Prior knowledge:
Elements: E1 3-8, H1 12-27, E2 31-32, E3 41-46, H2 51-70, E4 75-80, H3 81-86, H4 90-93, E5 99-101, H5 109-121, E6 130-132, E7 154-158, E8 160-161, H6 172-176, E9 180-181, H7 184-196, E10 201-205, H8 225-234, E11 241-245, H9 254-262, E12 269-271, H10 279-285, H11 291-304, E13 309-316, H12 323-336, E14 340-345, H13 363-387, E15 392-400, E16 407-411, E17 416-419, E18 429-437, E19 441-446
Parallel strand pairs: 1-2, 1-3, 3-4, 4-5, 5-6, 7-10, 10-11, 12-13, 13-14, 17-19
Antiparallel strand pairs: 8-9, 15-16, 15-18, 16-17, 18-19
Amino acid sequence: xxRVFIKTYGCQMNERDSEAxxxxxxxxxxxxxxxxxxxxxxxxxxCSVRDMAEQKAIGKAVHVIQKKxxxxxxxxxxxxxxxxxxxxxxxxxxxxxxxxxxxxxFHQVPDYLDNLRAAQEAGAPIASTxxxxxxxxxxxxxxxxxVLEDRQVTAFVSIQQGCNMDCxxxxxxxxxxxxxxxxxxxxxxxCEELAAxxxxxxxxxxxxxxxxxxxxxTHTGGVTPFVQLLERVxxxxxxxxxxxTSPHPRGFKEDLIAAYGRLEKLCEYVHLPLxxxxxxxxxxxxxxxxxERYRQIVDDxxxxxxxxxxxxxxxxxxxxxxxxxxxxxxxxxxxxxYDMAYVFKYSIRSGTPAAGMADQTPDEVKEERNQVxxxxxxxxxNRRNATLLGTTQEVLVEGPDRKGLGYMGRTRGNRIxxxxxxxxxxxxxxxxxxxRVSTAVLYGELALxxxxx
Length: 453
């Protein structure tokens, strides 16, 4: 029982959590495998933001349990948000699961697997499912270990966990707990170590990343703790780029907007969740900003960086959303001219205020509104990419393209670019002339003579 496969559902925070678990397991002597058919232990790191995400994970677990029935020594664990949300209730649908571990207990996974393995080696059956979804002080500080693949040049760094926003549609405060920030010195040290290991781009992660340290550090000269952290990461030698996700519009004060004009490593890319363009729906969602304030943030950012790229989150079909209110969302969606968006059909999450609201929107209306925004997004993306034809973009070379098209990297605006190169350029910033585009991807060739020789 030494080979472990981790399947991750959901957001970048979940990806980072899975990586930290993998690093801790490797340090304990477990072998991480990429082929699930070759594992003795399967861990499903789950998401609960939408019901569909939970159903996918449950469906996968049901399928895996058939393997477990053929091999009683096989171990199946459920980790993360769904484990936190459902706890022992999961056993009603998945009675053969061996391990259920919540979002504040990832660091306990190696100990629990050691216990299960010891019982099996002693010839004893697994007596009962191990369930641990308790809160733990300072658990945000346990997600710090990294598994870097050969010549990996990008990495996620978790700086803050939990959320105090209480949006009416969101289950994250239940699954992730209250807002908790890591010490700034530890984050900077982690980033320095990653840069020393060859990482050139770091993405800072948090449930509300812009709320970082607001209870732990003072504003200095009008600069918030989050921007103070950006300043320190920006100063790290060897690091070339900084990104962050996911912020909240209320975190975009003057200091953060100005940071895009003065911190050279902070990429001109912003993920700025809108959720709705209707002021009434925003109030019902418990989102503390108006459409006017949101548009002002977008305009201010574009004044600082005219070439700014924007992505967003939108929920269509929130309870009570009228056609007129959806049209307000559509109008603002068009006006902001997003380059990328995650458009979600509202999903009832039990335990959230919105779940009990009257006037739930019919599924067919949600689907229709979803498709309207997706068509606008496709047109926006095609239009923006067309403007890049013939231009030369700075690209961070990440590695070989999995589709066999050569090598791939990203622009500062987070556009994926495919081009011919050689292995020695991995981790380098190179100029690529764009000669072909699709809706989501750019294609080009190195612009410097001899750079790929």
